[in-house]
Specification:
Radius of gyration of chain A: 12 Å
Distance between the termini of chain B: 6 Å
Number of strands of chain A: 5
Shape of chain B: globular
Number of strands of chain B: 30
Number of helices of chain A: 3
Structural class of chain B: mainly beta
Largest sheet of chain B: 4 strands, antiparallel
Strand content of chain A: 25-35%
Strand order of the largest sheet of chain A: 2-1-5-3-4
Shape of chain A: globular
Largest sheet of chain A: 5 strands, mixed
Helix content of chain A: 25-40%
Strand order of the largest sheet of chain B: 3-2-1-30
Distance between the termini of chain A: 40 Å
Number of helices of chain B: 1
Structural class of chain A: alpha+beta
Oligomer: heterodimer
Chain lengths: 87, 344
Protein backbone atom coordinates (compact mmCIF):
# COMPACT_ATOMS: atom_id res chain seq x y z
CA UNK A 1 0.00 0.00 0.00
CA UNK A 2 1.95 2.98 -1.23
CA UNK A 3 1.02 6.56 -0.47
CA UNK A 4 2.53 9.76 -1.75
CA UNK A 5 4.17 12.15 0.70
CA UNK A 6 4.73 15.72 -0.40
CA UNK A 7 7.18 17.86 1.59
CA UNK A 8 7.62 21.66 1.60
CA UNK A 9 10.40 23.09 -0.51
CA UNK A 10 11.96 25.07 2.34
CA UNK A 11 12.67 21.72 3.98
CA UNK A 12 13.65 19.56 1.02
CA UNK A 13 16.10 21.95 -0.60
CA UNK A 14 18.15 22.19 2.60
CA UNK A 15 17.97 18.50 3.46
CA UNK A 16 18.88 17.75 -0.12
CA UNK A 17 16.01 15.48 -1.16
CA UNK A 18 13.12 15.67 -3.57
CA UNK A 19 9.69 17.05 -2.63
CA UNK A 20 7.73 13.87 -3.44
CA UNK A 21 8.20 10.43 -1.86
CA UNK A 22 6.44 7.07 -1.79
CA UNK A 23 5.95 5.42 1.59
CA UNK A 24 4.00 2.58 3.14
CA UNK A 25 1.84 2.37 6.24
CA UNK A 26 -1.65 2.01 7.61
CA UNK A 27 -1.58 5.25 9.56
CA UNK A 28 0.37 8.48 9.38
CA UNK A 29 2.89 7.36 12.01
CA UNK A 30 3.74 4.24 10.02
CA UNK A 31 4.05 6.21 6.81
CA UNK A 32 6.43 8.67 8.44
CA UNK A 33 8.48 5.86 10.01
CA UNK A 34 8.83 4.28 6.57
CA UNK A 35 9.94 7.62 5.18
CA UNK A 36 12.41 8.17 8.05
CA UNK A 37 13.94 4.74 7.44
CA UNK A 38 15.09 5.99 4.05
CA UNK A 39 15.63 9.64 4.98
CA UNK A 40 16.74 9.59 8.63
CA UNK A 41 17.56 13.28 8.81
CA UNK A 42 13.89 14.13 8.21
CA UNK A 43 12.75 12.72 11.54
CA UNK A 44 13.99 15.48 13.80
CA UNK A 45 12.71 18.09 11.36
CA UNK A 46 9.13 16.78 11.38
CA UNK A 47 8.85 15.43 14.94
CA UNK A 48 9.76 17.12 18.20
CA UNK A 49 11.70 15.65 21.13
CA UNK A 50 8.58 13.85 22.35
CA UNK A 51 7.81 12.25 18.99
CA UNK A 52 4.94 14.62 18.20
CA UNK A 53 4.49 16.51 14.94
CA UNK A 54 6.32 19.82 15.40
CA UNK A 55 4.01 22.65 16.51
CA UNK A 56 4.34 24.82 13.43
CA UNK A 57 3.79 21.99 10.97
CA UNK A 58 0.46 20.73 9.71
CA UNK A 59 0.02 17.36 8.00
CA UNK A 60 -2.96 16.57 5.82
CA UNK A 61 -4.06 13.15 4.59
CA UNK A 62 -6.22 13.48 1.51
CA UNK A 63 -6.83 17.15 2.34
CA UNK A 64 -7.92 16.44 5.91
CA UNK A 65 -5.75 17.53 8.83
CA UNK A 66 -4.15 14.45 10.36
CA UNK A 67 -2.33 13.31 13.48
CA UNK A 68 0.15 10.52 14.03
CA UNK A 69 -2.64 7.96 14.52
CA UNK A 70 -4.77 9.07 11.58
CA UNK A 71 -5.52 6.23 9.14
CA UNK A 72 -4.02 6.29 5.69
CA UNK A 73 -5.76 4.53 2.82
CA UNK A 74 -4.37 2.95 -0.32
CA UNK A 75 -3.10 5.62 -2.66
CA UNK A 76 -3.63 8.39 -0.12
CA UNK A 77 -1.73 11.62 -0.45
CA UNK A 78 0.07 13.03 2.57
CA UNK A 79 0.85 16.75 2.41
CA UNK A 80 3.23 18.38 4.92
CA UNK A 81 2.90 22.14 5.29
CA UNK A 82 4.78 24.60 7.45
CA UNK A 83 3.17 27.63 9.02
CA UNK A 84 3.33 30.83 7.03
CA UNK A 85 5.17 33.08 9.44
CA UNK A 86 8.33 35.00 9.99
CA UNK A 87 9.87 38.13 8.56
CA UNK B 1 41.48 38.57 4.03
CA UNK B 2 40.17 36.73 1.04
CA UNK B 3 37.10 34.74 2.02
CA UNK B 4 34.51 35.03 4.78
CA UNK B 5 31.45 32.94 5.44
CA UNK B 6 28.55 34.42 7.38
CA UNK B 7 25.50 32.83 8.92
CA UNK B 8 22.36 34.95 8.96
CA UNK B 9 18.72 34.80 9.89
CA UNK B 10 18.05 33.73 6.30
CA UNK B 11 20.83 31.50 5.07
CA UNK B 12 24.61 31.61 4.77
CA UNK B 13 26.68 33.65 2.36
CA UNK B 14 30.23 33.28 1.11
CA UNK B 15 32.20 36.46 0.45
CA UNK B 16 35.39 36.46 -1.61
CA UNK B 17 37.69 39.42 -2.13
CA UNK B 18 39.07 40.30 -5.53
CA UNK B 19 41.20 43.38 -5.17
CA UNK B 20 39.11 46.00 -3.45
CA UNK B 21 35.79 44.43 -4.38
CA UNK B 22 33.93 41.51 -2.90
CA UNK B 23 31.78 38.94 -4.60
CA UNK B 24 28.93 37.23 -2.78
CA UNK B 25 27.68 33.67 -3.21
CA UNK B 26 24.45 32.54 -1.63
CA UNK B 27 22.23 32.13 0.07
CA UNK B 28 23.16 28.65 1.13
CA UNK B 29 20.46 26.99 3.30
CA UNK B 30 17.83 29.45 2.01
CA UNK B 31 15.21 30.32 4.55
CA UNK B 32 17.07 28.73 7.46
CA UNK B 33 18.98 30.38 10.26
CA UNK B 34 22.69 29.57 10.16
CA UNK B 35 23.85 29.84 13.73
CA UNK B 36 27.42 28.49 14.00
CA UNK B 37 30.36 27.21 12.02
CA UNK B 38 32.91 24.61 13.04
CA UNK B 39 35.31 22.00 11.83
CA UNK B 40 35.02 18.25 12.13
CA UNK B 41 38.10 16.31 13.26
CA UNK B 42 38.56 15.07 9.68
CA UNK B 43 38.77 18.65 8.44
CA UNK B 44 35.30 19.03 6.97
CA UNK B 45 33.61 22.34 7.60
CA UNK B 46 30.43 22.31 9.65
CA UNK B 47 27.42 24.57 9.68
CA UNK B 48 24.68 24.53 12.27
CA UNK B 49 21.30 25.46 10.85
CA UNK B 50 17.94 26.00 12.44
CA UNK B 51 14.38 26.64 11.45
CA UNK B 52 11.41 27.94 13.36
CA UNK B 53 9.43 25.08 11.83
CA UNK B 54 11.86 22.20 11.43
CA UNK B 55 14.33 22.34 14.32
CA UNK B 56 18.10 22.10 13.96
CA UNK B 57 20.50 20.34 11.64
CA UNK B 58 24.23 19.91 11.10
CA UNK B 59 25.67 20.12 7.60
CA UNK B 60 29.18 19.25 6.41
CA UNK B 61 31.20 20.50 3.46
CA UNK B 62 34.65 20.13 1.99
CA UNK B 63 34.58 23.46 0.17
CA UNK B 64 32.13 25.75 2.01
CA UNK B 65 29.85 25.61 -1.04
CA UNK B 66 28.51 22.07 -1.42
CA UNK B 67 26.85 20.88 1.77
CA UNK B 68 25.26 17.64 2.89
CA UNK B 69 23.18 17.20 6.00
CA UNK B 70 24.43 14.81 8.66
CA UNK B 71 21.93 12.12 9.58
CA UNK B 72 21.73 13.27 13.16
CA UNK B 73 22.20 16.39 15.24
CA UNK B 74 22.39 16.89 19.00
CA UNK B 75 18.98 16.12 20.46
CA UNK B 76 17.45 15.89 23.91
CA UNK B 77 15.99 12.56 24.97
CA UNK B 78 12.23 12.15 25.18
CA UNK B 79 10.40 12.97 28.38
CA UNK B 80 12.90 15.55 29.63
CA UNK B 81 10.77 18.48 28.61
CA UNK B 82 13.70 20.12 26.86
CA UNK B 83 13.68 21.54 23.36
CA UNK B 84 16.60 21.54 20.94
CA UNK B 85 16.18 25.13 19.93
CA UNK B 86 19.55 26.03 18.43
CA UNK B 87 23.16 24.91 18.07
CA UNK B 88 25.23 27.84 19.30
CA UNK B 89 28.84 26.64 19.11
CA UNK B 90 31.18 23.92 17.93
CA UNK B 91 34.57 23.12 19.42
CA UNK B 92 37.00 20.51 18.12
CA UNK B 93 39.46 18.84 20.48
CA UNK B 94 41.45 16.07 18.82
CA UNK B 95 39.03 13.41 17.60
CA UNK B 96 36.18 14.75 19.68
CA UNK B 97 33.69 17.34 18.50
CA UNK B 98 31.75 19.37 21.03
CA UNK B 99 28.52 21.31 20.52
CA UNK B 100 26.93 23.89 22.78
CA UNK B 101 23.17 24.12 22.40
CA UNK B 102 19.91 25.64 23.60
CA UNK B 103 18.08 24.51 25.71
CA UNK B 104 21.41 24.78 27.43
CA UNK B 105 23.71 21.80 27.32
CA UNK B 106 26.80 20.24 25.82
CA UNK B 107 26.99 17.28 23.47
CA UNK B 108 30.01 15.42 22.10
CA UNK B 109 30.57 13.37 18.98
CA UNK B 110 33.43 10.91 18.54
CA UNK B 111 32.50 9.89 15.00
CA UNK B 112 32.67 13.15 13.11
CA UNK B 113 29.15 14.44 13.88
CA UNK B 114 27.44 11.20 12.92
CA UNK B 115 26.12 10.58 16.43
CA UNK B 116 26.02 12.75 19.55
CA UNK B 117 26.17 12.06 23.28
CA UNK B 118 25.04 14.38 26.06
CA UNK B 119 27.60 15.62 28.58
CA UNK B 120 25.69 14.43 31.61
CA UNK B 121 27.94 16.05 34.21
CA UNK B 122 26.97 19.49 32.94
CA UNK B 123 23.54 18.87 31.43
CA UNK B 124 22.22 17.27 34.61
CA UNK B 125 24.12 19.54 36.97
CA UNK B 126 22.64 19.69 40.45
CA UNK B 127 21.78 23.38 39.86
CA UNK B 128 19.85 22.65 36.65
CA UNK B 129 16.48 23.41 38.23
CA UNK B 130 17.69 26.97 38.79
CA UNK B 131 18.77 27.54 35.18
CA UNK B 132 16.50 30.09 33.57
CA UNK B 133 16.64 31.64 30.09
CA UNK B 134 17.59 35.20 29.27
CA UNK B 135 16.37 37.20 26.30
CA UNK B 136 18.51 35.07 24.00
CA UNK B 137 17.23 31.84 25.48
CA UNK B 138 18.95 29.30 27.69
CA UNK B 139 22.04 28.55 25.67
CA UNK B 140 25.54 27.10 25.98
CA UNK B 141 27.33 29.36 23.54
CA UNK B 142 31.07 29.22 24.23
CA UNK B 143 33.44 26.31 24.80
CA UNK B 144 37.11 26.75 25.73
CA UNK B 145 39.63 24.01 26.54
CA UNK B 146 43.13 23.53 27.89
CA UNK B 147 44.17 20.00 28.71
CA UNK B 148 41.70 18.47 31.13
CA UNK B 149 40.15 21.85 31.85
CA UNK B 150 37.02 22.98 30.03
CA UNK B 151 35.10 26.23 30.35
CA UNK B 152 31.60 26.73 29.04
CA UNK B 153 29.57 29.94 28.96
CA UNK B 154 25.83 29.57 29.47
CA UNK B 155 23.26 32.36 29.26
CA UNK B 156 21.66 33.17 31.64
CA UNK B 157 23.38 30.77 34.03
CA UNK B 158 27.08 31.63 34.08
CA UNK B 159 30.51 30.16 33.48
CA UNK B 160 31.14 26.55 34.44
CA UNK B 161 34.55 24.87 34.63
CA UNK B 162 35.47 21.22 34.54
CA UNK B 163 38.88 20.09 35.75
CA UNK B 164 38.37 16.46 34.71
CA UNK B 165 37.64 16.62 30.97
CA UNK B 166 33.93 17.19 31.42
CA UNK B 167 33.01 14.62 34.05
CA UNK B 168 32.18 17.15 36.77
CA UNK B 169 31.56 20.88 36.67
CA UNK B 170 31.54 23.85 39.03
CA UNK B 171 30.05 27.29 38.50
CA UNK B 172 32.78 29.96 38.35
CA UNK B 173 31.30 33.42 38.67
CA UNK B 174 32.68 34.94 41.89
CA UNK B 175 33.02 38.68 41.44
CA UNK B 176 30.37 39.03 38.74
CA UNK B 177 26.95 40.41 39.72
CA UNK B 178 24.07 38.06 38.97
CA UNK B 179 21.40 39.16 36.51
CA UNK B 180 18.92 39.77 39.28
CA UNK B 181 21.10 41.23 42.02
CA UNK B 182 19.16 41.53 45.25
CA UNK B 183 20.54 43.91 47.86
CA UNK B 184 22.33 42.22 50.74
CA UNK B 185 21.62 38.77 49.32
CA UNK B 186 24.35 36.17 49.23
CA UNK B 187 25.63 35.60 45.67
CA UNK B 188 23.73 32.73 44.09
CA UNK B 189 25.58 29.83 42.52
CA UNK B 190 23.92 30.37 39.13
CA UNK B 191 21.97 33.18 37.49
CA UNK B 192 24.83 34.97 35.74
CA UNK B 193 24.60 35.98 32.12
CA UNK B 194 27.93 35.52 30.37
CA UNK B 195 27.79 36.81 26.79
CA UNK B 196 31.35 36.36 25.48
CA UNK B 197 34.43 34.52 26.69
CA UNK B 198 38.02 34.45 25.48
CA UNK B 199 41.26 32.95 26.74
CA UNK B 200 45.04 33.20 26.52
CA UNK B 201 46.00 29.74 25.23
CA UNK B 202 49.54 30.10 26.62
CA UNK B 203 48.20 31.08 30.03
CA UNK B 204 44.81 29.37 30.15
CA UNK B 205 44.20 30.65 33.66
CA UNK B 206 43.66 34.08 32.06
CA UNK B 207 40.19 34.61 30.62
CA UNK B 208 38.20 37.65 29.60
CA UNK B 209 34.44 37.89 29.84
CA UNK B 210 31.86 40.13 28.26
CA UNK B 211 28.96 39.72 30.62
CA UNK B 212 25.46 41.09 30.83
CA UNK B 213 26.73 43.03 33.83
CA UNK B 214 29.98 44.33 32.37
CA UNK B 215 33.47 43.35 31.26
CA UNK B 216 35.57 41.14 33.53
CA UNK B 217 38.78 39.10 33.62
CA UNK B 218 40.17 36.32 35.71
CA UNK B 219 43.77 35.28 36.29
CA UNK B 220 42.92 32.13 38.23
CA UNK B 221 40.90 30.18 35.68
CA UNK B 222 37.60 31.67 36.77
CA UNK B 223 37.83 31.33 40.54
CA UNK B 224 37.66 35.13 40.83
CA UNK B 225 36.62 37.79 38.34
CA UNK B 226 37.44 41.53 38.37
CA UNK B 227 35.73 44.31 36.45
CA UNK B 228 37.84 45.94 33.68
CA UNK B 229 35.98 48.74 31.90
CA UNK B 230 38.45 51.65 31.97
CA UNK B 231 37.96 53.50 28.69
CA UNK B 232 34.82 51.73 27.54
CA UNK B 233 31.69 53.81 26.83
CA UNK B 234 29.49 51.06 28.30
CA UNK B 235 29.91 47.72 29.97
CA UNK B 236 27.21 45.91 28.04
CA UNK B 237 27.87 43.94 24.87
CA UNK B 238 28.26 40.45 23.51
CA UNK B 239 31.72 40.15 21.95
CA UNK B 240 35.00 39.32 23.66
CA UNK B 241 37.89 38.32 21.43
CA UNK B 242 41.59 37.87 22.08
CA UNK B 243 44.04 37.90 19.21
CA UNK B 244 46.20 34.80 19.65
CA UNK B 245 49.45 36.44 18.54
CA UNK B 246 49.50 39.94 19.98
CA UNK B 247 47.19 39.32 22.90
CA UNK B 248 45.13 42.31 21.79
CA UNK B 249 41.59 42.19 23.16
CA UNK B 250 38.58 43.39 21.20
CA UNK B 251 35.02 44.08 22.24
CA UNK B 252 32.02 45.96 20.84
CA UNK B 253 30.23 47.92 23.57
CA UNK B 254 26.48 48.45 23.44
CA UNK B 255 24.56 50.99 25.48
CA UNK B 256 22.78 48.73 27.95
CA UNK B 257 20.56 45.73 28.48
CA UNK B 258 17.55 47.85 27.64
CA UNK B 259 19.16 49.57 24.66
CA UNK B 260 21.28 47.12 22.70
CA UNK B 261 22.83 49.53 20.21
CA UNK B 262 26.13 51.45 20.34
CA UNK B 263 26.24 54.44 22.69
CA UNK B 264 24.83 57.40 20.70
CA UNK B 265 24.94 55.14 17.64
CA UNK B 266 28.73 55.40 17.49
CA UNK B 267 29.61 51.96 16.20
CA UNK B 268 33.21 51.21 17.18
CA UNK B 269 35.24 48.23 18.24
CA UNK B 270 37.40 48.83 21.30
CA UNK B 271 40.81 47.29 21.91
CA UNK B 272 43.01 46.71 24.90
CA UNK B 273 46.73 46.08 24.60
CA UNK B 274 47.30 45.69 28.34
CA UNK B 275 45.14 42.66 29.07
CA UNK B 276 42.08 44.75 29.76
CA UNK B 277 43.51 47.40 32.10
CA UNK B 278 42.56 50.12 29.61
CA UNK B 279 40.49 50.27 26.43
CA UNK B 280 40.43 52.61 23.45
CA UNK B 281 38.70 52.86 20.08
CA UNK B 282 40.17 50.38 17.63
CA UNK B 283 41.84 52.33 14.84
CA UNK B 284 39.95 54.32 12.22
CA UNK B 285 37.40 53.98 9.49
CA UNK B 286 34.34 54.21 11.71
CA UNK B 287 31.30 56.09 10.43
CA UNK B 288 30.30 59.50 11.75
CA UNK B 289 26.67 58.77 10.99
CA UNK B 290 24.95 56.93 13.82
CA UNK B 291 24.61 53.17 13.43
CA UNK B 292 21.86 51.86 15.65
CA UNK B 293 22.75 48.23 15.24
CA UNK B 294 24.27 45.58 17.46
CA UNK B 295 26.68 42.69 17.13
CA UNK B 296 25.82 39.21 18.38
CA UNK B 297 28.26 36.99 20.28
CA UNK B 298 28.96 34.64 17.38
CA UNK B 299 29.27 37.35 14.78
CA UNK B 300 32.95 38.17 15.35
CA UNK B 301 36.03 36.37 14.14
CA UNK B 302 39.74 36.94 13.80
CA UNK B 303 42.78 35.07 12.62
CA UNK B 304 46.44 34.93 13.53
CA UNK B 305 47.36 37.33 10.70
CA UNK B 306 45.54 40.22 12.37
CA UNK B 307 42.43 40.02 10.25
CA UNK B 308 39.15 40.61 12.01
CA UNK B 309 35.58 40.92 10.91
CA UNK B 310 32.22 41.29 12.54
CA UNK B 311 28.63 41.33 11.38
CA UNK B 312 25.79 43.40 12.73
CA UNK B 313 22.17 42.80 13.52
CA UNK B 314 21.54 45.31 10.72
CA UNK B 315 23.17 42.92 8.27
CA UNK B 316 26.41 44.78 7.54
CA UNK B 317 29.92 43.36 7.68
CA UNK B 318 32.98 45.21 8.95
CA UNK B 319 36.51 44.02 8.17
CA UNK B 320 40.10 44.92 8.98
CA UNK B 321 43.25 43.33 7.68
CA UNK B 322 45.85 45.13 9.77
CA UNK B 323 45.25 44.10 13.34
CA UNK B 324 42.19 46.31 13.87
CA UNK B 325 43.85 49.59 12.83
CA UNK B 326 41.87 50.28 9.63
CA UNK B 327 38.24 49.21 9.32
CA UNK B 328 36.02 49.01 6.27
CA UNK B 329 32.29 48.44 5.96
CA UNK B 330 31.53 46.12 3.07
CA UNK B 331 28.81 47.23 0.72
CA UNK B 332 26.58 44.16 0.52
CA UNK B 333 23.79 44.04 3.08
CA UNK B 334 22.51 40.81 4.55
CA UNK B 335 19.84 39.60 6.95
CA UNK B 336 20.65 39.78 10.67
CA UNK B 337 24.12 38.24 11.06
CA UNK B 338 24.54 35.57 13.74
CA UNK B 339 27.83 33.88 12.84
CA UNK B 340 31.02 34.93 11.08
CA UNK B 341 34.05 32.88 10.10
CA UNK B 342 37.20 34.02 8.29
CA UNK B 343 38.09 31.17 5.93
CA UNK B 344 41.37 32.40 4.48
Amino acid sequence: MSVTVRLPRVLTQVVGIGPKHDADGHNLGEVLDDLFAREPSLKSHLLDEEGRIRPHILVFVDATRAGIDSPVGPHSEVQVLQAVSGG
Amino acid sequence: MRRIVIGTEKGAYLLSASGASWTVEGPMFPGWKVTAFGQAPDGRHLAAVGSNWFGVGVHASQDWTNWSQMESAPSWPENQGRKMDQIWAFHTDGDRLWAGVADAGLFTSDDGAMTWNPVEGLNEHRTRADWHPGFGGLCAHRILMSGEQIWVGISAVGVFRSDDAGATWDAKNHGVPPVDAADNAAPPEVGYCVHGLSQDPDHPEKLWRQDHQGVFRTVDAGDHWERIENGLPAGFGFVMWRHPGSGRLLTLPLSSDENRVPVDGMLRAYVSDDEGDTWEIAGRGWPDAPQFTGTLRGAFDGDSDGQFCFGTTGGKLWVTGDGAETWEELQPAFPRIAAVRIIE
